[in-house]
Write a structure and sequence with these properties.
8 strands, about 300 residues, alpha/beta, Multidrug-efflux Transporter Regulator, Chain: A, Domain 2, elongated, Rossmann fold, about 15% strand
């Protein structure tokens, strides 16, 4: 079971907050903003409380407050000011920093309040693409470098999933599909468990009036053959975050082509970072790669394509 990381190096603080280690040391010395413990070899070690404080300071600092002004504030004032700024700001980076703070504090209330304020001024597509995805990209790097624990990453991921599920359920209840001549099957290949991308694509396709069949994570290719008897004009959609890895991804795509879409009308749309390892020269014409949601929309979701 994952333990919550509670001890941080100055490099961890730099990576999470975006404030250079050299600057953190200056703030400590000049303004006594942080008081790290020291190891026997005189290496700084910071508590979770220190990280929370630095994230609060960073949010104020990035919002135009001088560090001397922040240092003069009462310690109880800072979190109050941070919440007010986070909930009123239209800056994506301020919103991302507020969500980071909610992650470090395991603070669902701050996460929800930040989300509700953002969604007042933007649609859900904007929030996911411009705030949630950059946040998750940052957290992925922090997790890989052990700057945050798996507990932090799981906490924030599941809160984002909740928001996607709510938006998706609303669409399913309120909207009847406008286009019945194309059905999208959303799935993740075997051993791929990162669902955020495919969950958002399911919501996005539904929003444009198409029917979807959402199958979720870690499916063997053979299990998809059954769907062809249901409808031969399917568009399979997948999002490859870590699997199939670079050593097997070309074999996977060729195997999918041979078993599922060769000789028929079905297509495969691939998104996600693993697509960079595909051999484009040998890619069948009914397999499509997309780096952005906009590109996917233009190819498949414009109504005129299927009229």
């Amino acid at each position: 079971m994952s333990r919550v990381k509670s001890n941080f190096s100055i490099k961890d603080l730099e990576n999470i907050s975006g404030i250079k280690a050299h600057t953190i040391r200056i703030w400590e010395k000049r303004y006594e903003l942080l008081s790290p413990d020291r190891t026997n070899t005189n290496i700084r070690r910071y508590s979770l409380k220190s990280l929370r404080k630095l994230l609060n300071i960073t949010l104020l600092y990035n919002h135009g407050f001088k560090i001397s002004k922040i240092a003069s504030l009462d310690q109880e004032e800072i979190p109050i000011m941070v919440r007010e700024i986070a909930l009123k700001s239209n800056s994506e980076q301020v919103s991302i920093n507020a969500l980071k703070l909610s992650m470090v504090n395991f603070d669902t209330i701050l996460f929800d309040a930040t989300f509700e304020e953002i969604i007042l001024h933007n649609d859900f597509d904007f929030v996911f693409i411009n705030i949630f995805m950059p946040l998750m990209n940052e957290l992925g790097i922090l997790w890989q470098t052990n700057a945050i624990s798996p507990s932090h990453e799981h906490f924030i991921t599941n809160l984002i999933k909740q928001k996607i599920h709510i938006q998706t359920e609303s669409l399913q209840k309120e909207h009847i599909p406008q286009h019945n001549n194309k059905v999208f099957v959303l799935y993740l290949p075997e051993d791929e468990i990162h669902e955020l991308g495919i969950l958002f694509l399911n919501y996005f396709i539904l929003k444009y009036g198409f029917r979807t069949i959402f199958l979720g994570q870690s499916l063997q290719t053979e299990s998809l053959e059954t769907l062809l008897s249901f409808n031969s004009d399917l568009c399979f959609v997948t999002y490859l975050t870590v699997e199939p890895n670079k050593h097997i991804i070309n074999y996977y795509v060729e195997d999918f082509y041979q078993k599922i879409i060769k000789g028929g009308n079905a297509q495969l749309a691939i998104m996600g970072p693993q697509q960079v390892h595909l051999d484009l020269a040998n890619l069948p014409k009914n397999i499509h790669l997309f780096k952005t949601v906009d590109a996917f929309q233009q190819k498949f979701l414009e109504a005129s394509i299927f009229v």
